[in-house]
Amino acid sequence: MSKNGTIRLQVEMEKEGYAELQRLMKETGTRTMKELTNNAFTLLKWAIKKRKEGASIVAMNEKRKIYVELGMPILEVVIPNTETE
What we know:
Layout: H1 15-28, H2 33-52, E1 58-61, E2 66-69, H3 73-76
Antiparallel strand pairs: 1-2
């Protein structure tokens, strides 16, 4: 850990995964891996919070009346808090 409390994170992945990260960065105008990672963490924290509240995470097309629930193993293990329902 550095003096300012930050750490350097090293990740191993296949070349295809790295290419996908680069594509996502280009598509979203993200300039750094740090920025991409921070946004991914923000989205995951929000999804976990909503699952704890008992909500489903969905993509919705109101015009076509199509709703698709996000299925991710990491979210499947989150147990809703029955006290907040």
